[in-house]
TrEMBL record:
Keywords: Stress response. SUPFAM superfamilies: HSP20-like chaperones. Residues 29-141 form the SHSP domain. InterPro entries: A-crystallin/Hsp20_dom, HSP20-like_chaperone, Small_HSP. Gene3D superfamilies: 2.60.40.790. The keyword Lipid biosynthesis does not apply. Belongs to the small heat shock protein (HSP20) family. It comes from Aeromonas diversa CDC 2478-85. This is Small heat shock protein. It holds the Pfam family HSP20.
């Protein structure tokens, strides 16, 4: 079995990149994620949410909770670095925002919410409650 890619697979990869709307992938960096990927788990007293936000800074994440609806928003920015003795011939960057809202089976107690962001993974601990409260913005550690 050969470790080299076949000629057919190289052309398949090229046309797969070009065929979807005749767009080309960026020369470096990943395109904006289409959606925030989530894992939601439930225990007797709380919900645990894991949200993937690769390439996002903690300061650019906004978390809003209103009753049982949780909304995660993030601003995504790609910056290029340039050395002092270099002359740029081409520079590509992207900016954009992504958001995801989902509804939990029960309302959340806003006082006990814990949000932690580490290595592109946002972890939320959302305590369950029976009495609804008004929405508020949650700080992220």
């Amino acid at each position: 079995m050969s470790l080299l890619p076949s000629r057919a697979s190289l052309f398949d990869d090229l046309f797969r990149d070009l065929a979807s709307g005749f767009t080309v992938k960026p020369l470096h960096g990943d395109p904006l994620p289409a959606q925030v990927k989530l894992d939601v788990k439930e225990s007797d007293s709380l919900y645990t949410v894991l949200a993937e936000l690769p390439g996002v800074r903690k300061e650019d994440i906004h978390l809003d909770i209103q009753g049982r609806v949780v909304t995660i928003r993030a601003e995504v920015r790609q910056h290029d670095s340039q050395e002092q003795d270099e002359r740029p011939l081409r520079s590509e960057r992207y900016y954009g925002s992504i958001a995801r809202s989902f509804e939990l089976p029960m309302d959340v107690t806003l006082d006990g919410v814990n949000a932690r962001f580490d290595n592109g993974l946002l972890t939320l601990s959302l305590p369950k409650q029976s009495n609804p409260q008004s929405g508020q913005r949650i700080p992220i550690e």
